Amino acid sequence: MPHAQTVSGKPSLSIIVPTFQEAENLPELIERIERVCDAHGLKAELLIMDDDSRDGTEELIAALQKPWVRLVVRRENRGLSAAVLDGFRLAQHEVLLVMDADLSHPPEKIPELLDALCAGADFVIGSRYVAGGTTDEDWGLLRWLNSKAATLLARPFTSAKDPMSGFFALRRDTLARAASLNPIGYKIGLEILVKCGCRDVREAPIHFSQRRRGKSKLSLREQLRYLQHLRRLAVHKYGDWAHFAQFAAVGFSGTVVNLTVLTVLVWAHAPLRLSIAVAILVSMFTNFLLNRWITFSYARSGSFWGQMAGFFGASSIGAGVNYGVTVGTLWLWPALERIPQVAAVIGILAGLTFNFFMSRHLVFRKPPE
Ligand code: GDD
Ligand code: MN
């Protein structure tokens, strides 16, 4: 197939397919890719990036004896996205195209994706959610909802309708624009879309078929990793503002913790002053844990107790800053004495900002690379 002499003037293509136990699907996949490339005079190679499936994949590809089909058996650093990134490194051709092995993505759409790239797109998606795109009926409400929610969460990063798709193509030089790609989770397409700064993103409608053979490999755990992935993309795109937003969200959760603890203690007839003090301490502690675990997760390797002391210390000074700014605002602007809440909000923001910078630069320091 993909003979050089049939080349149609279109760029040559490296098709990268991550696989884990897809031996049953590979014959049909390869046959359909071959047919479509022949029909359109496309020069292509197929890189099957297999995570040591031991399900007959190796024997099958060896027996096929097709020089344009290459199987790479991976034994380390397993995972869909890591497999795709390895495939990019080995790819020989100008256009990189990624698709699943289970025939959910129709190979017949490959020429359309390629045409969009030739027409100037940075990134092309085989999309379920543009006009003309469809999914099999028996998709199940739960999977549909899940997919919709995940797509919505990606909204701040891209306006593409189906950025979660595992069927996409881009040029090699577009890929080179990313400083580094982090293959956490399985949304490698979204990662590239954001980190390569793709502006002209186009979507070709596809029919996403239900897999007929083998089973899905994407666990709930992978789905949860997606949240972590989004957080990293936020830091990539918004820098310190993303950290600040997380810090503020943690602070808000601390308010809820504080009020809950206070309510419970008062209800249990604990002395009021003690209850107030305990509520503050508990909420400081949960804030500390969440900031260590989420906001400044890069500093998790630092000393737990040292960071805790630093955080409590910084927050206490922050409380002083809050008090001072609130009182100072009222002094500067006595008219506010009738609505001291306004001064309090200014004080809270000042305390929050102070705490943030102390935490960011002193308490949760980035470990040296
Ligand atoms: N090498 C390797 N390693 N391949 C993997 C791994 C892995 O750990 N896990 C899955 N794959 C391969 C599968 O063999 C298949 O070819 C492809 O990745 C997609 O895996 P599925 O298990 O079929 O995933 P899915 O159908 O649930 O999810 C697909 O659709 C989602 C949108 O609904 C994927 O395309 C997702 O990327 C996409 O977001
Ligand atoms: Mn699938």
Fold and architecture overview:
This protein is 52% helix and 11% strand. The protein has 369 residues and is of the alpha/beta class. The protein has 2 domains: 13-238, Alpha-Beta Complex (Spore Coat Polysaccharide Biosynthesis Protein SpsA, Chain A), CATH 3.90.550; 240-363. It has a 7-stranded mixed beta sheet with strand order 3-2-1-4-7-5-8, with helices on both faces. Bound molecules: guanosine-5'-diphosphate-alpha-D-mannose (GDD) and manganese (II) ion (MN). Guanosine-5'-diphosphate-alpha-D-mannose binds next to β1, β2 and α3.
Tally of DSSP β-strands: 9
CATH superfamily label of the largest domain: Spore Coat Polysaccharide Biosynthesis Protein SpsA, Chain A
The geometry reads as: elongated
Gap between N and C termini, in Å?
Answer: 47 Å
